[in-house]
Specification:
- The chain contains eight helices and nine strands.
- The chain is an alpha/beta fold and 214 residues long.
- The chain folds into two domains: 71 residues, Winged helix-like DNA-binding domain superfamily/Winged helix DNA-binding domain (Arc Repressor Mutant, subunit A); 113 residues, Rossmann fold.
- The N and C termini lie far apart (48 Å).
Length: 214
């Protein structure tokens, strides 16, 4: 489905939520759904859903709603989930190992190739089926395999220099858990800066707001 207009980042950020809910509906045996029913499920408005989908030409039929199979296929294509993208992970500490052991990279569009760490004690170990390699071999690996993205779970002080080095060697996107905000848009490379604390602090504020209103 071709885009009808330049799509805002806010719309793009809602697409994974749409996709996840559509996959859940399919697993529940639902074959089609109206924008109103989908909106109720997701806590949005039907108008918002229609506007978002119209950015890509629209997927539904008035009076019929959205075909779940078709919508899953279209959203998956827009997100690039079947484009065969690959990734590596840098930093096999506690957070890195948690991702290796528990996160389904393939379901989010990436085939994780392996992990790298500077600690010799981790070299050769396997977590979640992924081998940890010595970081001294990273350059040669990048040259040979050209991964599309890198997951950064390294110490924050090392993040900017390593990120730029990865970009110089052809990495085209970064999923950044270092706590150091990286902004590489000027290099044409998207970065997703993940701060778990931001989400928890938001919850802290909302709880306080609810208490104040009682």
């Amino acid at each position: 489905m071709e885009r009808k207009q330049e799509v805002s980042k806010a719309v793009i950020q809602r697409l994974p939520r749409y996709y996840r809910n559509i996959c859940e509906l399919k697993a529940e045996g639902v074959q089609r759904i109206s924008s109103r029913s989908l909106a109720e499920r997701m806590g949005l408005t039907a108008s918002q859903i229609r506007q978002d989908f119209n950015c890509f030409g629209g997927f539904g039929q008035q009076g019929y709603g959205y075909n779940i199979d078709k919508l899953q296929e279209e959203l998956g294509a827009i997100l690039g989930l079947r484009a065969g993208r690959t990734a590596i992970l840098l930093g096999a500490g506690n957070l890195g190992r948690a991702l290796l052991n528990n996160f389904d990279f393939a379901a989010s569009g990436f085939r994780l190739l392996c992990a790298f760490d500077a600690d010799p004690a981790l070299t050769g170990k396997t977590f979640g089926g992924y081998e940890v390699r010595d970081s001294s071999t990273l350059d040669a690996f990048l040259e040979a395999h050209h991964p599309d993205a890198a997951v950064l779970t390294i110490p924050r002080g090392n993040a900017p220099a390593i990120a730029r080095s990865l970009v110089d060697r052809g990495v085209r996107g970064l999923w950044n858990f270092t706590g150091e905000d990286l902004h590489l848009e000027g290099l044409g490379v998207p970065v997703e800066n993940v701060h778990l604390s931001d989400s928890l602090m938001t919850l802290c504020h909302l709880i306080g707001t609810d208490t104040a209103e009682e």
